[in-house]
Amino acid sequence: MPEFEGADLRVREESFCAASDDPSGHTSNIGDQFPANHGTNVVAVIIGTGRGAAGQPGMMGVAPGATVNFYGAGARIDGATQPCSDADGVDSRARAIDEAVVEGADIISVSLGGNLDSDTSDALARAYRSGAVVVLASPQQASDGFALGSMAKANGVVVVESGGPDGGLIPGLSLADPRVAVVAPGGGIRTIDGNSGWTSYRLQDGSSLAAPWVAGALALVWSEYPDATGNQMIQTLLRHTFLNDGDLVRHDDHVGYGTVSISRMLQADPTSYPDENPLLREDARPTIEEITGGDPLPDAADGDADEQDQATVAADGPSPAGGFPGVPVVAVGAAAVAVGLALVVTVAVRRRTSAGPPPAARPR
Hints:
With 364 residues, this protein is of the alpha/beta class. It is built from seven helices and 16 strands. The chain has a single domain (2-328, 338-348), classed as CATH 3.40.50.200. The termini are far apart.
């Protein structure tokens, strides 16, 4: 595909869900079948070249110079998009996160739903101890009364809500919840239409596109400040939005800390901020003790204890200040990001400049 010509994209073959019992035979790899359509667009949000099919304008990524490792971790099973499990019952998201960490991912962006089971919680703890940032697409089922919960309840993740072209939230699609961290472009996004032979484009909405946008933004800024830790990158993401100018202020449950601003982040050195994840909570999994202690890369643990969702409300809400002005697009050098999505997990890898787990992070 023209969007990926010359891009540093590595696709894990086969996908974690390649053996699913979906009668359609669809898998979640980048390719020419359905959930591949979703995965392809999420990757293109990060590293798309802007060159489209048949000479058309394509998708321009936020960080076209980043390295992306793609892991297929979801499929259409029994008519619904969901993670799959291996023969031992281990969740595909946990396996994808663990593999991404082993590959050296610095940013893991997940847009795949499902309950936060013990496997995934343990994998997240290992990712944090490796120094990675985890970005998560907000669930967007407000019209059905779906609660922002499941994996979005995980401790320390950057939950991303989607905003429209004017910077405002999308009525009927956005949710309000205490775990929403930031808003990013996710409305009216030009995407590739895999259902039409990968030769046409359409506009789509959703946090599955907003989350990789944030992952790309972090990779872009991290390449400018390679000595920053993952915790410091979260600090600068939250402190330098269109609503914040250096202060760590959470405004409300609709927009969190505000709309993401790459230009503001680039103007501030994240190494000046505490090496602490401000999104950690005392009452969430993985626990702070699990995140800050133990071996950085143990084997994945077993378990399947699900959590109950907590109710949220639809956010027609306050519009994030500033909108989404033009974003500087530059080569990211060796930036590394791990990205996950509703049908797949994508990972862009930036090798770290320092070894060892990050210092203990302080809860809010």
